[in-house]
Design brief:
Elements (H helix, E strand, L loop, with lengths): L8 H4 L13 E4 L15 H14 L3 E5 L5 H10 L8 E7 L11 H8 L4 E7 L2 H7 L4 H17 L3 E7 L1 H7 L1 H13 L4 E6 L6 H14 L5 E5 L6 H11 L3 E4 L13 H11 L7 H4 L2 H12 L16 E2 L3 H8 L17 E2 L7 H10 L11 H14 L7 H12 L7 E10 L12 E10 L2 E9 L2 H13 L10 E8 L11 E8 L4 E8 L2 H25 L21
Parallel strand pairs: 1-2, 1-8, 2-3, 3-4, 4-5, 5-6, 6-7, 7-8, 9-10
Antiparallel strand pairs: 11-12, 12-13, 14-15, 15-16
Amino acid sequence: MYFKGSTDGAILGMHKCYHFDMTRIFTYDSTLRDGEQAEGISLSLEDKLLIVSCLDDFGIDFIEGGFPASNPKDIAFFKAVSEMNLKHAQIAAFGNTCKKGIAPEEDKGLRDLLESGAPVVTIVGKSWDEQVTRALQTSLEENLRMIRESVAYLKSAGRRVVFDAEHFFDGYKANREYTLECIRAAHEAGADSIDLCETNGGALPFEVEEIISDVVRQFPDQAFGIHCHNDSGCAVANSLAAVRAGATEVQGTMNGIGERVGNTDLLTVIADLELKMDCDTVGADNLKKLTEVSRYIGEVVGVSVSAHNPYSGRSAFAHKGGLHASAIARFPQAYEHVDPSLVGNNARMVVSELAGKASLVQKAASLGIDLSAEGVDIQAILDDIKAREAYGYTYEVADASLALLFMRHLGTYTPAFTLESFRVIVDDREDTGALAKDAFSEATIKIHVGESRYVATGEGAGPVGALDNALRMAITESFPEIADLELVDYKVRLPDESEGTDAVTRVTITTSDGWGTYGTVGVSENVIEASWNALVESIEYGLIRQAERAARGGKAEIVSVGGKEPMTKGQA
C-alpha cells in the first residue's frame, strides 16, 4: 500500500526549539484514536477522512489513524487514506511493542502495522517498572527487549518510528534509572522520536520541565516529543513546558477531546507556540484557519466547541458593554492578548452584536458568490444568519446551505421544485429488543416542477432514506443528473440538550456528487422536517453544482467544504 503524502525531509528531520538552534516544532494529531476514545464519540469512516483532509490542509505534520487491525473500520480507513492525495501530512499507524516472549518478526500486531502501508509507525511501550511487573506481568529486562527489538524491526522495514513511553512521568518519579533504560533501548534501536507520555494527566508544568530537561541532557542527540492528558487541567501548560525543556514534537487532539477529561488541545498549543514562543508549527497563513478548523472538527465529531475555548471559542474575543466595550475601541490590547484575526476569529461586542462584514464577503467569495457588489445589504444577511444561529442553525459544516442563503438574499435563487406535501410512515411489526432491525419506512411526496405535478412513494429502512428515494423518483424525469448525487453522511444533534425531547433538532447532511462533498443543515422541532430541509438543500445545491460544472465545460467549481480545495474527478 503506497501513501501519497509528503516525504519531505523537513518533516522527517527533527530539530530543537525555543532557546535551541531552530524553531520548528512538529505537530502530531491523535484525534482519530485518542479523540475517539472520548465518551460519546464514534467516528464513521467518512468522518475520519474529512478530518484527515482538514488537518492536512491546516498543515498538521502527522495524523495518527488508529490501530490498523483493531476493527473493520480502521482497516478500511488505512486503505482509503492511502488513496488520498495528501499535500503535507503523513499518516501514522498506532500499535504496541511485540508481546512478551515473541520475536518482533513473529508478532501479528507489528506485521499489521507494516501492512497498513503507513509511512509512520507509533508503538507504545511500558516505562514504569510497576506497570511492567504488575500490568504486563513480565520482567524489567524482557520489557527492554520488547522495546529495543520492536523499534529496530520497524526501522529495518523503512518506517519512521515514534516510540510512546507510556506512564513515563509516573515511572520517572518511582524509578528514574529504569525509565532512562527504557529510553536508551528505544534510542539505541533508532527511534526517530521518543514521545514521553503523561498518561495519568496528574503532573504539573514545573515537574514536566524538570524531568524532560534531565532526559534531554542524558540523550542530547535524540528527538523527544510530549503526549499529555488533561486530568489536572495542565495538558496545554505541560506541553509548552516540555517544549521549553527541549521537546520538538507535541501530540494532542483537536479541541482537546479524549479519554476521561481529554488530551492536550493541539490547537491551543499551536497558537501559543506560534504567537507566544516564536516557534514554527503550521505557519502564519495556516494559523488564520485555526478557528475554522476548530469549529469544523467540532461539528464532524459531534462535540460543539465551547464558547469560551481559547482562541477559537465564540466568546474568546467577545466584549460586553460598559468599560470594556469603550476601552477596546481605543486600545484593543487592553482586553485582547493577541489580534483575533491571527487565528481566524473576530472581536465581538456582545451588546451591539457587531459582526465582521469583511469576513462574510470573503467567505462568500470562497463559495463563488460576490457580496461586494453595489446595493447588496450585507447587514441584512448578517442579521439573518444571527437569527438562524440563535434558533439552532450552524454553517460550519454546511457551506452549501450558506451559499443558498446568500443566493436568496441576492435574488439569484430559483427553487428547482416546490413541495406540496409529504407523509412518512414507519412500520415496525415485530418487537425483537435492542437489536431489532425490522422497522421499515415509507414516504409519499407530492412535488411540483414548473407546471408539472409529481407524486411518488419511496421505501427505506429509515424515514430519511425513504424521503430521499421518493424525492429522487419524483424529479428524476426533470433532473436525471440527480443520479450523481449520493448522501454519504447524516447527523442529528440537539443544540440545547437541556430541553430533552422538546429541543430543537439540527440535522446535517454530507453529499457527494463525484467531484467532492458538501454539507447542508436543517433545523426544526421535528426531526423529520429538519431532515427534509437539509435533504432538499443538498439536492438543490447539487443540481446547481451540476449546472455550473456543465457551463464550465465539466470543470470542478469553486465550492469547497471545510477549507479543502475542490476535488477533481480523479480524486473523488
